[in-house]
Amino acid sequence: MKRRRTTASLAAIAAMGTLIATGASAANQDPTLQEGQRPVVTEGAPVTPISGLNIPELFSTKVSQDRKHVLPHPPIDQIPWIPMPDTDGVGIRTDHTSGDRSVVSHDALTGVTSKLAVQLPSNAIGGQSVEGDYPGFGNKIDTYEETLESFGSMSIAGSLNTWPRSGNVKIVMRFTDTNGNFRWFACSGSMQDSGVVLVAAHCVFNRSASINDWADIIYIYPAWDGVNNNGPFGAPDSGEVIQNFGYAFGTTFLAGSGYVNSGDFDADIGLIRISRGSSRNIGMLTGWYSWAWGGSCASIQSRTYNNFSYPSENCPTAGMHNGRDMYFWSGSIDNCPDNQMELSTGGNCLDTVWGGMSGSGMYYIDGGTRYVHAVCSTSNRTTWGRYCKFWEGFVNSMVDYENATRGNAFDIEALQFRAGGSTSVFQGQALDAGATVSIANATNNNPAADSYTLRVYLSTNNNISSGDTLLATWNYNTDFAAMQTRTFNVPAPTIPLDTPPGTYWIGVEIDPSEDGTSSNNDTDTWDAQQITVLEAHPDLNATLSNAVAGTYYRGQSVSVTHRTYNDGERISGDVHLEFRASTNNFISIFDTLMEERNYSPLTVGNSHWFVSTVQIPADLNPGTYFIGTIVSESLGLETNTTNNWVSDIDTITVLECPADLNGDGVLNFFDVSAFLAAFNAMDPIADFNNDGVFNFFDVSAFLNTYAIGCP
Question: What would the mean pLDDT of 157-165 be, rounded to a whole number?
């Protein structure tokens, strides 16, 4: 069923800006405030934690079952451009000077449509914002394309993550038609404040006979690069990241009443309010444009104007306007019909206003500030294209709308958590550099200095929550100003050792008690850092085995200096070491085992370095031997065992001790007993004087050898 629109008077909305500006925090604001004494956006100094713990939970103890955030619409580049207003339609007013100057707002969640009170005009011919534009938090500025001066040839914009490109957006609108079906369309737009997007009125209110209604919801993609664009109908990849700034959405809109009521394209300007809490005040990262209204045609034609947009309508060259590429053109205005700025066009792909460009901002530069003066409204696709100018009443309502969007209740948002180095990390290891997260106070509230707690989580999807694996907790002290963003430095988080290899996301959550709106305190979707956890294997490397060279009898002990490293990517299990005697310098399990030792696990890059006393087996055949070691670890995780053995470069000589007749390496009664048994049996080993006769002299020789012992 078609939803019902209601109209209510909001006479108090005109006073909202004053209410915000004169709130409790106003006394602490900068005296240079502009635009009704509202705070000007600033960037605070980075903040480093004063305390905290970087001890991760085991991954297996807490794995959240929350769902991944996905784009709730078809692939962006497959969404058709919204039809431009029909300039020849019946009942369409084109003379804005005698048309409806009022502005109307609509809340899609409640269905309430409200006509804003008309403020008295100043009788000025035109004006511009004194507040200026904002290039975005930490953004680079690249003005190269603005040096081009020709509306006769568009070019694909580059470096979309730099200002002023970052302030331009691709938007996707969902409408419900008269049959109750969802209808999707695309427009362009530009950021007008941290939480307000400037578009055409026909992007927020569709006057077609099959719809004739406001949008249900609008998605905003700042500086979209045209790459990742899949919604649930396009089977999104689990690693999808929307560049360059993710997305936001809104369900509250503003538009010129003249367009909404009668299709007057001289009132074809609209605004989108980004939903606080459930979405992101993305303008704090992208930046936003200043504004200008009115002005004489002579002053307009004396300027160079610039325009970024996403054309998507088919043009004479097939496939050129694909809805994925941002284009730029600039030049001078040819005509000023009514409340329009008109370009004379040629009907070609790169010299004409095409569908998809609707709502994009046309701006001029004055003193380094970029003033959006008009938005792309309509075109006959051949000889002309028109941009609707701001008028004073709309600008006044827009400033109030921006202030109401900001609000006067303190609310910080966690944006853009990013690793400082590689996003690939082994199990049990920390990322190779510290991380950062942008914390924004996109409100007109100026709080006192306070402490803030951030918790770092590892998630199996891009939905960061307290149900994920806690990696660390950090505490900060800082003093936020109104409309301010700060970088919070986050020590490199450590990945739990039992984390299975695969794709994950790391993000933070601000403690819910820190501000008035906790639903935007975590870094979800684009604001979470996607990482790859690699299977981290230990790699034990036996690097040293050095036995003291010399001659030894069987059963004696030899001193061996030995060292084993862990050259792998994770901690090992318990280390097991075998000392073996080999007739060559290749040590293997087939060599004689001398002794075994067990040691504690080895962390990455560390070693066990010991001097051990090792006994030579009493039954080892006399000869020359290399003493070496073989190492292994108890978890059985090693994949490289080629370096698990090492041999001494020198040898030892092993002799048989003559008096040790039982071969146990010890001279005692049992050797005497063994001699007597051999003597009685006339065993050749009892012929100690080697004369072939068993007599007293053999007994005497044995006792003499026994008394001397084995050196």
Answer: 95
Look at residue 29 and tell me if it is in a domain: no
Domain count, the chain: 4
> Scanning the structure block, which residue is given the tokens 């303190």?
410
Same domain, 642 and 548: yes
501, 634: one domain: no
| CATH code assigned at 622 | 2.60.40.10
Helix (H) or strand (E) holding 248: strand 248-250
Same domain, residue pair 524 and 552: no
**Ordered DSSP codes for 84-137:** PP-TT-TT----GGGS---EEEEETTTTEEEEEPPPPP---SEEE-SS--B--T
User: Is 106 exposed, middle or buried, given 0-12, 13-18 or 19+ CB atoms closer than 10 A?
Assistant: buried
| Cα dist from 166 to 299, 512, 605, whole Å | 28, 30, 43
3-state secondary structure of 405: helix
Q: Which residues contact 698 (CB under 8 A, 6 or more apart)?
A: 679, 686, 687, 688, 689
Inform me whether the pLDDT recorded for 109 exceeds 90.
yes
- Cα separation, 77 vs 97, in Å, equals 38
Rounded Cα distance between 182 and 511, Å, is 38
What's the Cα-to-Cα distance from 383 to each of 214, 305, 378, 379, 380, rounded to whole Å?
30, 19, 12, 8, 7
pLDDT one-digit tens code per residue, 200-255: 999 999 999 999 999 999 999 999 999 876 543 333 344 467 889 999 999 999 99
Cis ω before 491 (30° cut-off from 0): no
> Could you tell me if residue 38 is inside a domain?
no
Does the residue 302 lie in any domain?
yes
| CA neighbor of 585 nearest in space, from 541, 632, 622, 629 | 629
- 271 and 199 in contact (C-beta within 8 Å)? yes
Q: Which structure tokens are listed for 158?
A: 């580059």
Tell me whether residue 419 is exposed, middle or buried, using C-beta atoms within 10 angstroms of its C-beta: 0 to 12, 13 to 18, 19 or more: buried
Alpha-carbon gap, residue 43 to 360, rounded angstroms: 27
Do 517 and 624 share a domain, yes or no? no
Q: Is 345 in a helix, a strand, or coil?
A: coil
pTM, two decimals, is 0.80
CA distance 59 to 395: 53
Q: Report helix, strand or coil for 435.
A: strand
- Looking at residue 240, its pLDDT comes to 65
- d(Cα 657, Cα 237) in Å, to the nearest integer? 74
What domain range is 689 assigned to?
669-708
Summarize pLDDT for 435-454 with one digit per residue, the tens. Answer: 999 999 999 999 999 999 99
Closest among 556, 198, 542, 595 to 398, alpha carbons compared: 198
pLDDT attached to residue 595: 96
Strand-pair category, 340-344 with 384-389: antiparallel
Same structural domain, 590 and 503 = no
DSSP state string for 534-598 = EP----EEEEEEEEPPEEEETT-EEEEEEEEEE-SSS--S-EEEEEEEESSS---TTSEEEEEEE
